[in-house]
């Protein structure tokens, strides 16, 4: 039937409007020479006005469905993975022994018990039990708990519900908040009774939460494998982290886990061969730990040879430059170019030397890392345009730049160029020549520096701090005031402090797609004392590889592709960046880059990357990872379809359904409160039958169709007005 809901104001406005329109219709009919046709048109006019007035009164079409079957009581039980946690004590109603079983076993015993028989006595009700959140049968599909969808679906399917009983641990990780379904149940008058299962306290457990390994490393070099372990034990645990490959080669590290907290750490692994390797990181089961399945993780990492192109720019052949040049030129993975602007002798010449700084993007884009020594903007050094090129190379093509200031203070002139924003520290312009020390001062690693791969001079993290303590100190340092925001300080002056704290001397930052390193001393060459090239060569080799890592993720002749994050989790968005080049090696100005994406289940799609406004041939795009496994990418530039770049992104399969997690009874309590039900504790199961038996019969289901917002109402109104307008035109014609 039709139901109107006008307010007093809209009611009188509608009545007055209908009276006025009716009077106008009668007047128009009386004045017309064609009263028959005019009567029809004025009737259409009044009918259209009536529809408008009814819309003002918010009409609804209501139908009532009276149930013709027995009232139903739905018992929903959680079948998700978290229900495998063994922390649920059986109440006396289910077991006289009171043993502790898994949540799933607790629920099965409750469902199979005689608890529900009184509800079906004498045919009073029909009891229906069904699982929710069951693990999917298909591989590669995320398994999780959605409490809202099953309850909402039940309300749409059933029209004669008397009550709903939910047995669950309250944990949900998919879908809408379950309180949304509880609100729908309240509107329908269906109470919800929840039975929380499981302990509110986390089981004693060590959980290897995450492993964030790089996608590739250089053969013969160490890679850093960060990991996170969560301990829910109430005591400190000394354990061993073991990293092993498929051949049985392994490396171990002793760590201490604090009670009831997360521990972030990393372990080093040396890549010995080219190609992909499967590594497994694990920790032993501790005394008292009840869940052993989450103590290990496997991941893949690729070993590859590398050829890093480096450009070093300097003015004077100071000791730091000489030994840096030797270290890079003797590195088999580095292709070195040097540019010397000597103030008296002119440009340097000889092996590895170039005579001019690249003046075009296509000439500069081949370099992965640029070292800027004690050099600045001057008639016989760099130009502002070249500084702009360096910034574009770093931000758009993921290259790196290293600032190595010297006692001449030439780098202060860079602060008036586009490189100023890349400088990660604030310099003191009153002391451009820096500070000299009569006694050698040490570099002290910060917390970030102790865990950084850049400052890892030992084969293990345990010996690394001791190595840094033994390194010879420095006698000069740059006039640094403080580090800028968004930077990471790896090392500070061991003796000197400023008004902002210890003077930062080894600082890194991200700049667009690239990286920046500032080193405020010129005495790294002194690290050779007593050990020759051991630490000096290793440090600069790590710097070159760290800065060029992202740029060389997937590189071809015409396209270079890199992405973040490297190991996405299902549900994450991956940002794709590409650099495209024309046949001459110059950044591509016209054309497009497309990425053909193949998901782990075989689905394919094409992503057209968008070009940025720079002259560096940079393109970017995004896609969403919705499945764990290997996502294959094939990037091609227009006109170079025969030279694609292929790579694989490994999405880490995250188990969002975890055992050992505490139950969440507060979620079930909120749902019951909103749906006007009640939380039944396991020890109060006998009261559940009494509560449901006392409920009234289900009220009839009322369906409401809001005509004031329905598309059919608008269609009728437009049709009436159209017929009226056409009729008026025809009525005046003949």
Mean of all residue-level pLDDT scores? 86
Low-confidence stretches: none
Helix and strand composition category: alpha+beta
**What share of residues is helical?**
10-25%
Could you characterize what this model shows?
With 734 residues, the protein is an alpha+beta fold. The protein has a nine-stranded mixed β-sheet. The chain starts with a strand and ends with a helix.
What would the keywords be for this entry?
single chain, 734 residues, alpha+beta, Immunoglobulin-like, 5 domains, nine-stranded mixed β-sheet, eight-stranded antiparallel β-sheet, 15 helices, extended
Task: Give the helices and strands, then pairings.
Elements: E1 2-3, H1 8-31, H2 35-56, E2 60-65, E3 72-78, E4 88-89, E5 100-101, H3 103-112, H4 117-120, E6 126-132, H5 148-157, E7 161-168, H6 179-188, E8 192-196, E9 206-211, E10 216-218, E11 222-231, E12 237-245, E13 250-257, E14 261-270, E15 275-282, E16 296-304, E17 308-314, H7 319-329, E18 334-342, E19 346-347, H8 361-364, E20 369-372, H9 384-397, E21 400-403, E22 425-427, E23 435-441, E24 443-445, H10 447-450, H11 464-470, E25 474-477, E26 480-483, E27 487-498, E28 501-511, E29 514-519, H12 534-548, E30 554-555, E31 559-564, E32 573-580, E33 593-598, E34 604-611, E35 618-624, E36 629-637, E37 645-651, H13 665-674, E38 678-679, H14 685-693, E39 701-706, H15 711-733
Parallel strand pairs: 3-6, 3-7, 7-8, 8-38, 10-16, 17-18, 17-20, 20-21, 21-29
Antiparallel strand pairs: 1-2, 2-39, 4-5, 9-11, 11-14, 12-13, 12-15, 15-16, 18-19, 22-26, 23-25, 24-27, 27-28, 28-29, 30-31, 31-32, 32-35, 33-34, 33-36, 34-35, 36-37
Helix pairs in contact: 1-2, 2-15, 5-6, 6-13
